[in-house]
Design a protein that fits this description.
The structure is a single chain. It contains two helices and eleven strands, in the order H-E-E-E-E-E-E-E-E-H-E-E-E. By secondary structure, it is mainly beta. A six-stranded mixed sheet has the order 2-8-7-4-5-9, with no helix packed on it. The chain has a three-stranded antiparallel sheet with strand order 1-3-6, with no helix packed on it. Strands 10-11 form a two-stranded antiparallel ribbon. It is globular and about 40 Å long. It starts with a helix and ends with a strand.
Amino acid sequence: MLSNLVLLALLPLASAHFLLTWPPARGFDDSKSTSFPCGGFDTVLSNRTTWPAVGGPIQLEMHHTQTDVQVLIALGSDPGVNYNIVMRPTFLEQGLGNFCMGMVALPAGVNITEGMPATIQVVSNGDDGDSGGLYQCADVTLTMTALSTSDYNSHCNNGTGVQTSQLSGAAVNANETSPSATGATSGSASVTAATATHSGLATQRTMAAWALGAVGIVGGLVAL
């Protein structure tokens, strides 16, 4: 009987597409995960996580063997749908379980200050036949102080065999979506995640090798 209860408790997580575990997500409901901008959790949390704007890890738990992933951020205490700063353009992640994007940072030229509130948005593609993307958000307070090595490593782990690959051409728009298509208020401006710009920043069409883990070379990819 106990084993059956354990299995039932795990069912919601087993059906999830991905989970944002650090910085902690506002919440997760798989049935609402296609709802732009934050998977049905659109109320800003008061207990924000301090996160290093100079570069920090974003930890995910992946439940698909192959997923397109992108990371954006919105500045301010209540950004609404304005996730228009690209921190990681769309790329391909392969492998189940823990996946850490290492040393994610705001693009050069974005005007930020110590203690500024912001919200990180992680977007992935859905299953075949799904419309739009899948969304999770984390409310953070930006700091210009880097994490210590021990703190960084405590929030950055990768499962065996996890790999990432660069996308090019039309594929970098894999997570393009519009709010009206994913449950947001009608009349909102569309969001083209991979081509969004902020304060005159050039569109990010290319990317370096993605960091997997805190240091070193993992799966043939150089950690940033």
